[in-house]
């Protein structure tokens, strides 16, 4: 072993030197060179830092740099996040997205173009004018639909979500709210009055029938019972004669 190489290293190093830092790492750790000014220092890490990807070999595990336009990568040829000004597409960093795709500035990726989608039209509303459905002959009716899918930046914009058209209705007078309420109240009172009158008449009828029944019962109690006349065919009973 070189005199500058030490076996008792810190920070996960298997071997190290005072000048170059780690020369080899303990098992499962990754060796990476970090630049400090004009000097490179070897360090041992459990995972590779941003801008590097890890490769494992039988004798050593190394961290290698990603491509210049790639911020993080899985391998040198497969980027997972691009640097500013580039858009990710199929593991590559592009300045401009291919045809049929658009640049998403939020995710910095090339994504499919999304067009607007709407639901079916609703049925036409009742013919109205100034919020009323009476007191006019010509009015308007409307129908609406909802947006189901909002478009992306380059997608087809959404069409109108409401339509209006002229309509004609049979003219009818608007019933005043106060008058209608008054008529309903009068009808209710009249109905209650008629019901009360019928109830009183029924009560009087029952009382009269009860009084007549009681009168007949009293008359039957006070009148003497009539004797039956003897039957002529039976004849008179014999009478004893005193001589």
TrEMBL record:
One of its GO terms (biological process) is positive regulation of non-canonical Wnt signaling pathway. Keywords: Disulfide bond, Glycoprotein, Heparin-binding, Repeat, Secreted, Sensory transduction, Signal, Wnt signaling pathway. Its main location: secreted. Coiled coil: none annotated. Residues 116-170 form the Spondin-like TSP1 domain. The keyword Disulfide bond applies. The keyword Signal applies. SUPFAM superfamilies: Growth factor receptor domain, TSP-1 type 1 repeat. It comes from the Eukaryota. It is found in: Secreted. SMART domains: FU (SM00261), TSP1 (SM00209). GO terms for cellular component: extracellular region. Residues 11-110 form the R-spondin Fu-CRD domain. GO terms for molecular function: heparin binding; signaling receptor binding. It holds the Pfam family Furin-like_2. Residues 169-243 are annotated as: Disordered. Residues 175-219 have a biased composition (Basic and acidic residues). Belongs to the R-spondin family. Interacts with the extracellular domain of FZD8 and LRP6. It however does not form a ternary complex with FZD8 and LRP6. Interacts with WNT1. Binds heparin. Interacts with LGR4, LGR5 and LGR6. Activator of the canonical Wnt signaling pathway by acting as a ligand for LGR4-6 receptors, which acts as a key regulator of angiogenesis. Upon binding to LGR4-6 (LGR4, LGR5 or LGR6), LGR4-6 associate with phosphorylated LRP6 and frizzled receptors that are activated by extracellular Wnt receptors, triggering the canonical Wnt signaling pathway to increase expression of target genes. Also regulates the canonical Wnt/beta-catenin-dependent pathway and non-canonical Wnt signaling by acting as an inhibitor of ZNRF3, an important regulator of the Wnt signaling pathway. This is R-spondin-3.
